[in-house]
Amino acid sequence: MADTLTSPPLLSDDFAWFFDLDGTLATIRPHPDEVAVPDDVLHALNQLSLLNQGALALISGRSMAELDKLAEPYRFPLAGVHGAERRDIHGHAHIVTLPQELVQTLHAQLATALSWLPGTELEAKGMAFALHYRQAPQYQPQVQALAEQVVRDNPQLSLQPGKCVVEIKPRGIHKGEAISAFMHEAPFAGRTPVFFGDDLTDEHGFEVVNQLKGVSVKVGAGETKASWRLATVPDVWEWIIKAANHQQEKQIAQTNRRTEYGSLDRSL
To answer: For each of the chain's 268 residues, which pLDDT tens digit applies?
Structure first.
Protein backbone atom coordinates (compact mmCIF):
# COMPACT_ATOMS: atom_id res chain seq x y z
CA MET A 1 0.00 0.00 0.00
CA ALA A 2 2.95 2.36 0.50
CA ASP A 3 3.32 2.93 -3.24
CA THR A 4 -0.30 4.11 -3.49
CA LEU A 5 -0.01 6.92 -0.94
CA THR A 6 -0.84 10.36 -2.29
CA SER A 7 0.17 13.91 -1.33
CA PRO A 8 -1.62 15.33 1.73
CA PRO A 9 -4.30 17.98 1.22
CA LEU A 10 -3.76 21.52 2.44
CA LEU A 11 -4.83 21.76 6.07
CA SER A 12 -6.15 24.48 8.35
CA ASP A 13 -8.25 24.70 11.52
CA ASP A 14 -7.03 23.18 14.80
CA PHE A 15 -3.87 21.25 13.97
CA ALA A 16 -0.68 20.61 15.94
CA TRP A 17 2.34 20.55 13.66
CA PHE A 18 5.42 18.33 14.03
CA PHE A 19 8.35 18.22 11.61
CA ASP A 20 11.48 16.11 11.41
CA LEU A 21 14.49 18.05 10.12
CA ASP A 22 17.11 16.10 8.12
CA GLY A 23 15.48 14.60 5.05
CA THR A 24 12.24 16.46 5.72
CA LEU A 25 12.81 20.20 6.24
CA ALA A 26 16.37 20.04 4.88
CA THR A 27 18.03 17.90 2.26
CA ILE A 28 20.53 15.38 3.60
CA ARG A 29 24.16 16.38 3.10
CA PRO A 30 27.41 14.40 3.37
CA HIS A 31 28.13 16.09 6.70
CA PRO A 32 25.52 17.32 9.24
CA ASP A 33 27.15 20.77 9.46
CA GLU A 34 26.31 21.40 5.79
CA VAL A 35 22.55 21.19 6.35
CA ALA A 36 20.31 24.28 6.17
CA VAL A 37 16.60 25.13 5.99
CA PRO A 38 15.70 27.85 3.43
CA ASP A 39 14.67 31.21 4.88
CA ASP A 40 11.26 31.21 3.17
CA VAL A 41 10.51 27.78 4.66
CA LEU A 42 11.49 28.95 8.16
CA HIS A 43 9.26 31.98 7.68
CA ALA A 44 6.35 29.73 6.67
CA LEU A 45 6.93 27.49 9.70
CA ASN A 46 6.83 30.54 11.97
CA GLN A 47 3.67 31.67 10.20
CA LEU A 48 2.06 28.28 10.86
CA SER A 49 3.16 28.48 14.49
CA LEU A 50 1.62 31.93 14.98
CA LEU A 51 -1.60 30.90 13.25
CA ASN A 52 -1.91 27.90 15.59
CA GLN A 53 -1.09 29.54 18.95
CA GLY A 54 2.43 28.12 18.93
CA ALA A 55 1.43 24.48 18.32
CA LEU A 56 4.43 23.62 16.13
CA ALA A 57 7.50 21.63 17.16
CA LEU A 58 10.62 20.21 15.55
CA ILE A 59 11.20 16.51 16.30
CA SER A 60 14.70 15.30 15.43
CA GLY A 61 17.61 13.08 16.25
CA ARG A 62 19.73 16.23 16.44
CA SER A 63 20.35 18.00 19.73
CA MET A 64 18.15 20.92 20.72
CA ALA A 65 21.15 23.24 20.41
CA GLU A 66 21.59 22.19 16.77
CA LEU A 67 17.88 22.59 16.08
CA ASP A 68 17.83 26.10 17.52
CA LYS A 69 20.77 27.06 15.32
CA LEU A 70 19.10 25.66 12.19
CA ALA A 71 15.80 27.41 13.03
CA GLU A 72 17.30 30.89 13.62
CA PRO A 73 15.95 33.51 14.05
CA TYR A 74 12.88 31.61 15.26
CA ARG A 75 12.51 29.60 18.46
CA PHE A 76 10.09 26.67 18.44
CA PRO A 77 9.23 23.93 20.93
CA LEU A 78 11.65 21.07 20.30
CA ALA A 79 12.32 17.39 20.85
CA GLY A 80 15.99 16.56 20.30
CA VAL A 81 17.85 13.24 20.33
CA HIS A 82 14.58 11.49 19.40
CA GLY A 83 12.89 12.89 22.51
CA ALA A 84 15.64 12.32 25.09
CA GLU A 85 15.63 16.09 25.42
CA ARG A 86 12.52 18.21 24.95
CA ARG A 87 11.61 21.90 25.35
CA ASP A 88 7.96 22.82 25.83
CA ILE A 89 6.13 25.99 24.79
CA HIS A 90 7.18 27.70 28.03
CA GLY A 91 10.87 27.01 27.46
CA HIS A 92 11.05 24.34 30.16
CA ALA A 93 13.53 21.55 29.33
CA HIS A 94 12.82 17.87 29.99
CA ILE A 95 16.05 15.84 29.77
CA VAL A 96 16.66 12.09 30.03
CA THR A 97 20.18 11.36 31.29
CA LEU A 98 22.52 8.39 31.66
CA PRO A 99 25.09 7.91 34.43
CA GLN A 100 28.17 9.98 33.58
CA GLU A 101 30.48 7.04 34.19
CA LEU A 102 28.55 4.98 31.63
CA VAL A 103 28.62 7.83 29.08
CA GLN A 104 32.40 8.18 29.45
CA THR A 105 32.95 4.42 29.14
CA LEU A 106 30.78 4.15 26.05
CA HIS A 107 32.42 7.16 24.42
CA ALA A 108 35.87 5.65 24.83
CA GLN A 109 34.73 2.21 23.67
CA LEU A 110 32.93 3.48 20.56
CA ALA A 111 35.64 5.98 19.59
CA THR A 112 38.29 3.26 19.75
CA ALA A 113 36.22 0.79 17.72
CA LEU A 114 35.32 3.30 15.00
CA SER A 115 38.94 4.42 14.68
CA TRP A 116 39.54 1.07 12.97
CA LEU A 117 36.81 1.86 10.39
CA PRO A 118 38.06 4.84 8.31
CA GLY A 119 35.31 7.18 7.18
CA THR A 120 32.94 6.32 10.02
CA GLU A 121 32.17 9.00 12.58
CA LEU A 122 31.03 9.04 16.20
CA GLU A 123 28.61 11.77 17.27
CA ALA A 124 28.26 12.05 21.04
CA LYS A 125 24.99 13.64 22.18
CA GLY A 126 25.36 13.48 25.94
CA MET A 127 22.80 10.76 26.59
CA ALA A 128 23.06 9.08 23.17
CA PHE A 129 25.56 8.21 20.47
CA ALA A 130 25.19 8.24 16.69
CA LEU A 131 27.47 5.98 14.65
CA HIS A 132 27.63 7.45 11.13
CA TYR A 133 28.83 5.50 8.09
CA ARG A 134 27.57 7.66 5.19
CA GLN A 135 31.15 8.22 4.04
CA ALA A 136 32.03 4.53 4.48
CA PRO A 137 28.96 2.42 3.63
CA GLN A 138 31.13 -0.70 3.28
CA TYR A 139 31.43 -0.75 7.07
CA GLN A 140 27.68 -0.90 7.74
CA PRO A 141 27.80 -4.54 9.00
CA GLN A 142 30.65 -3.75 11.43
CA VAL A 143 28.96 -0.58 12.73
CA GLN A 144 25.66 -2.43 13.19
CA ALA A 145 27.39 -5.30 15.01
CA LEU A 146 29.23 -2.85 17.29
CA ALA A 147 26.03 -1.05 18.24
CA GLU A 148 24.19 -4.32 18.84
CA GLN A 149 26.97 -5.52 21.16
CA VAL A 150 26.83 -2.29 23.18
CA VAL A 151 23.07 -2.66 23.65
CA ARG A 152 23.39 -6.32 24.63
CA ASP A 153 25.93 -5.31 27.28
CA ASN A 154 23.77 -2.41 28.53
CA PRO A 155 20.06 -3.33 28.82
CA GLN A 156 19.09 0.27 29.65
CA LEU A 157 20.00 1.21 26.07
CA SER A 158 18.33 0.53 22.72
CA LEU A 159 19.16 0.81 19.01
CA GLN A 160 17.63 3.24 16.54
CA PRO A 161 18.67 2.55 12.91
CA GLY A 162 18.48 5.40 10.39
CA LYS A 163 19.83 6.45 7.02
CA CYS A 164 23.55 5.55 7.10
CA VAL A 165 23.54 5.81 10.89
CA VAL A 166 22.88 3.62 13.91
CA GLU A 167 22.03 5.40 17.15
CA ILE A 168 22.40 4.14 20.70
CA LYS A 169 19.98 5.83 23.09
CA PRO A 170 18.14 5.29 26.39
CA ARG A 171 15.54 2.55 26.13
CA GLY A 172 11.95 3.77 25.71
CA ILE A 173 12.94 7.04 24.05
CA HIS A 174 11.54 7.68 20.57
CA LYS A 175 9.79 10.35 18.53
CA GLY A 176 6.36 8.86 19.16
CA GLU A 177 6.77 9.39 22.90
CA ALA A 178 7.92 12.97 22.28
CA ILE A 179 4.86 13.75 20.15
CA SER A 180 2.61 12.14 22.75
CA ALA A 181 4.15 14.30 25.49
CA PHE A 182 3.51 17.47 23.48
CA MET A 183 -0.07 16.38 22.76
CA HIS A 184 -0.79 16.32 26.50
CA GLU A 185 0.31 19.96 26.88
CA ALA A 186 -1.03 23.33 25.75
CA PRO A 187 -1.15 24.56 23.04
CA PHE A 188 -0.98 21.12 21.36
CA ALA A 189 -3.64 19.41 23.49
CA GLY A 190 -7.05 19.09 21.84
CA ARG A 191 -5.66 19.60 18.34
CA THR A 192 -5.22 17.11 15.52
CA PRO A 193 -1.52 16.17 15.11
CA VAL A 194 0.31 16.42 11.79
CA PHE A 195 3.76 14.85 11.46
CA PHE A 196 6.19 14.93 8.52
CA GLY A 197 9.20 12.57 8.57
CA ASP A 198 11.38 10.59 6.22
CA ASP A 199 13.27 7.91 8.13
CA LEU A 200 12.90 4.75 10.19
CA THR A 201 13.30 6.99 13.24
CA ASP A 202 9.99 8.66 12.33
CA GLU A 203 7.85 5.51 12.17
CA HIS A 204 7.12 5.60 15.93
CA GLY A 205 5.85 9.15 15.38
CA PHE A 206 3.62 8.08 12.49
CA GLU A 207 2.18 5.31 14.65
CA VAL A 208 1.26 7.69 17.49
CA VAL A 209 -0.21 10.27 15.11
CA ASN A 210 -2.30 7.58 13.40
CA GLN A 211 -3.62 6.42 16.77
CA LEU A 212 -4.70 10.02 17.44
CA LYS A 213 -6.45 10.12 14.02
CA GLY A 214 -3.98 12.71 12.78
CA VAL A 215 -2.13 13.26 9.52
CA SER A 216 1.13 11.32 9.02
CA VAL A 217 3.27 12.16 5.98
CA LYS A 218 6.24 10.13 4.75
CA VAL A 219 8.86 12.01 2.72
CA GLY A 220 10.49 9.85 0.04
CA ALA A 221 10.15 6.23 -0.97
CA GLY A 222 9.88 3.12 1.17
CA GLU A 223 7.42 1.19 3.28
CA THR A 224 5.84 3.24 6.03
CA LYS A 225 3.04 3.50 8.57
CA ALA A 226 2.29 7.01 7.31
CA SER A 227 -1.02 7.72 5.55
CA TRP A 228 0.30 10.26 3.03
CA ARG A 229 3.48 10.83 1.05
CA LEU A 230 5.53 13.63 -0.49
CA ALA A 231 8.34 12.61 -2.85
CA THR A 232 11.12 15.05 -2.01
CA VAL A 233 12.24 17.72 0.46
CA PRO A 234 11.44 20.53 -2.05
CA ASP A 235 7.90 19.10 -2.20
CA VAL A 236 7.73 19.53 1.59
CA TRP A 237 8.91 23.13 1.29
CA GLU A 238 6.27 23.91 -1.32
CA TRP A 239 3.54 22.24 0.73
CA ILE A 240 4.45 24.12 3.95
CA ILE A 241 4.45 27.50 2.21
CA LYS A 242 1.10 26.76 0.54
CA ALA A 243 -0.39 25.47 3.81
CA ALA A 244 0.69 28.57 5.73
CA ASN A 245 -0.76 30.88 3.09
CA HIS A 246 -3.94 28.78 2.87
CA GLN A 247 -4.55 28.93 6.61
CA GLN A 248 -3.80 32.65 6.77
CA GLU A 249 -6.22 33.38 3.93
CA LYS A 250 -8.89 31.27 5.61
CA GLN A 251 -8.47 33.07 8.93
CA ILE A 252 -8.61 36.47 7.23
CA ALA A 253 -11.83 35.45 5.46
CA GLN A 254 -13.35 34.28 8.76
CA THR A 255 -12.38 37.55 10.46
CA ASN A 256 -13.92 39.57 7.64
CA ARG A 257 -17.16 37.59 7.88
CA ARG A 258 -17.36 38.16 11.64
CA THR A 259 -16.77 41.88 11.08
CA GLU A 260 -19.51 42.00 8.47
CA TYR A 261 -21.96 40.14 10.74
CA GLY A 262 -21.11 42.48 13.62
CA SER A 263 -21.72 45.54 11.46
CA LEU A 264 -25.04 44.09 10.30
CA ASP A 265 -26.13 43.39 13.90
CA ARG A 266 -25.33 46.95 14.94
CA SER A 267 -27.25 48.38 11.99
CA LEU A 268 -30.29 46.30 12.88
So the answer is: 455 678 888 887 789 999 999 999 999 888 878 899 999 999 999 999 999 999 999 999 999 999 999 999 999 999 999 999 999 999 999 999 899 999 999 999 999 999 999 999 999 988 899 999 999 999 999 999 999 999 999 999 999 888 889 999 999 899 999 999 999 999 999 999 999 999 999 999 999 999 999 999 999 999 999 999 999 999 999 999 999 999 998 888 877 776 666 655 565 5
Instruction: Specify the 3-state DSSP secondary structure of 20.
Output: coil
Full-model pTM: 0.86
Per DSSP bridges, beta strands 15-19 and 56-59 are parallel
Residue 157 backbone dihedrals phi, psi, to 5 degrees: -110, 160
Residue 20 annotated to the active site: yes
Q: Which of 13, 20, 22, 88 is catalytic?
A: 20
